[in-house]
């Protein structure tokens, strides 16, 4: 029986963390950036050194294959993976764990001389964090990209996807060519840190994901009138920032009061224009994000918060624009994959509980084209998307062992 190496897993995770590593700890490794492209080259080298086939598709997804070098419905692949891009000032485990543990599993199988009935592969999906477009690489792979929007896709600081990809040697217009043939993936399972505290607080070793939240992102733009911040009487000001602030506070109350109890919302990007201390803001832009495991709840909240934005604008003599940025549907995980994860935990004597993922993942795109599931390991203090994201190394190794067991069961 193949066995993962905890020391090799740790060594690769610690090496990967140095690409975009920050002096005080944590990582900034945005997709297509120089640190990300250096990490890509390193990963391709590790895949080859592990005795696997390595390739990259037109959407920039990196693959390692055992018994395959492509996706072909004649020989469906059991696939694992995650992402090597990070949020700004993020942690070393979000995404990286699923890629490196997947590589570790395939290498362990290769070294053991075991030949599963189905080929195995591991993926590092492009731009999972959505600096330019949410879950970009796995959307392309699953045929879910809105091709017409590629030319307009950009980061919130205005860098176009087309330019970022060109800088890294990719042609954005070719990304849709990454679409895998129907039936080419027999199953997908992704290992990820929970990024929340439920497993740790419950003393449970493994999470078996039942559903992954849907995520909606909308750019909300309030228009007022730029004016002199000293000479304009307070009662004559049409301050766009105050409209945005009023909306943000009231939208948060609405989501908490009228959501499902699992609904969340965030305003992580705020831009004021012209952006000088002595000018009354003429324009204020928010990126408004909402999440819930149920599509109908998200739809209802989207309608209500859109109506709220108009009400706030009217009340302040402003106008408001709502520009949808991305919408990812909630994704139920496959009962077959969930059963395989449960069986792996039983075989390995590990405690396991079902839960929903409050974070978005590439697995929710794979769930549109194959049986998909996720394995979670505890995050210390539930910390993630922050430089002090951490997990116990023994937990990470246990997660890799469950992943290996699950992959082999799905590849029989
Ligand atoms: O934002 C998320 O849920 C994920 O970490 N990309
Ligand atoms: Mn993340
Ligand atoms: Mn992630």
Give the number of helices. 11
Please state roughly what percent of the residues sit in beta strands, choosing from under 5%, 5-15%, 15-25%, 25-35%, 35-45% or over 45%.
Answer: 15-25%
The number of E-state strands comes to 15
**What letter string, H or E per element, gives the SSE order?**
HHEEEHEHHEHEEEHEEEHEEHEHEH
CATH architecture of the largest domain: 3-Layer(aba) Sandwich
Structural class: alpha/beta
Profile the largest sheet: 9 strands, mixed
Which compounds are bound in this model? (2S)-amino(hydroxy)ethanoic acid, manganese (II) ion
For the record, give the distance between the C-alpha atoms at the N and C termini, rounded to a whole number. 14 Å
Tell me the CATH topology of the largest domain.
Aminopeptidase
Helix content: 25-40%
For the residues shown, what is the average pLDDT?
97
Morphology: globular
> What would you give as the CATH superfamily of the largest domain?
Zn peptidases
In angstroms, what is the radius of gyration? 22 Å
Q: Poorly predicted ranges (pLDDT <50, ≥5 residues)?
A: none
CATH class of the largest domain: Alpha Beta
Instruction: Count up the domains.
Output: 2
Task: Give a structural overview.
This protein is α/β, with parallel strands linked by helices. It folds into two domains: 287 residues, Zn peptidases (Aminopeptidase); 115 residues, 2-Layer Sandwich (Alpha-Beta Plaits), CATH 3.30.70. The chain contains eleven helices and 15 strands. The strands form three sheets. Strands 1, 2, 3, 4, 5, 6, 13, 14 and 15 form a nine-stranded mixed beta sheet that branches. A four-stranded antiparallel beta sheet has the order 9-11-7-12, covered by helices on one side. A hairpin with a 5-residue loop joins β1 and β2. It is globular and about 80 Å long. The mean pLDDT is 97. The structure holds (2S)-amino(hydroxy)ethanoic acid (HGY) and manganese (II) ion (2 copies). The site of (2S)-amino(hydroxy)ethanoic acid has 4 residues, from loops.
């Amino acid at each position: 029986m193949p066995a993962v190496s905890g020391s090799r897993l740790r060594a690769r995770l610690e090496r990967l963390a140095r690409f975009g590593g920050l002096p005080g700890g944590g990582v900034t490794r945005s997709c297509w950036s120089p640190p990300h492209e250096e990490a890509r080259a390193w990963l391709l080298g590790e895949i080859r050194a592990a005795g696997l086939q390595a390739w990259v598709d037109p959407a920039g997804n990196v693959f390692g294959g055992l018994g395959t070098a492509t996706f072909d419905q004649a020989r469906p692949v059991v696939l694992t993976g995650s992402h090597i891009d990070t949020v700004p000032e993020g942690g070393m485990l979000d995404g990286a764990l699923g890629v490196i543990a997947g590589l570790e599993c395939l290498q362990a199988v290769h070294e053991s001389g075991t030949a599963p009935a189905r080929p195995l592969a591991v993926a590092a999906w492009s731009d999972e964090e959505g600096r330019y477009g949410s879950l970009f690489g796995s959307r392309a792979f699953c045929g879910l990209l809105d091709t017409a929007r590629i030319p307009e896709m950009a980061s919130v600081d205005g860098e176009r996807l087309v330019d970022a990809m060109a800088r890294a040697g990719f042609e954005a217009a070719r990304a849709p060519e990454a679409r895998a043939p129907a039936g080419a993936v027999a199953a997908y399972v992704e290992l990820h840190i929970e990024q929340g505290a439920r497993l740790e607080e419950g003393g449970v070793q493994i999470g078996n994901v039942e559903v992954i939240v849907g995520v909606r992102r909308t750019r909300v733009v309030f228009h007022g009138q730029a004016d002199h911040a000293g000479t304009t009487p307070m009662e004559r000001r049409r301050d766009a920032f105050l409209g945005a602030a009023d909306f943000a506070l009231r939208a948060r109350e609405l989501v908490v009061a009228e959501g499902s109890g699992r609904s969340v919302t965030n305003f992580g990007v705020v831009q004021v224009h012209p952006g000088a201390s002595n000018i009354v803001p003429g324009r204020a832009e928010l990126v408004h994000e909402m999440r819930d495991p149920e599509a109908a709840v998200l739809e209802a909240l989207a309608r209500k918060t859109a109506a709220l934005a108009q009400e706030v604008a009217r009340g302040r003599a402003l106008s408001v624009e709502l520009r949808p940025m991305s919408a990812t549907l909630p994704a139920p995980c496959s009962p077959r994959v969930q059963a395989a994860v449960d069986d792996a935990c039983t075989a390995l004597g590990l405690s396991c509980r079902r839960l929903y993922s409050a974070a978005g993942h590439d697995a929710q795109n794979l769930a549109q084209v194959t049986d998909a599931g996720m394995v979670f390991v505890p995050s210390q203090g539930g910390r993630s998307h922050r430089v002090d994201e951490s997990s116990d190394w023994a937990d990470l190794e246990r997660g890799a062992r469950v992943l290996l067991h699950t992959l082999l069961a799905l590849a029989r």
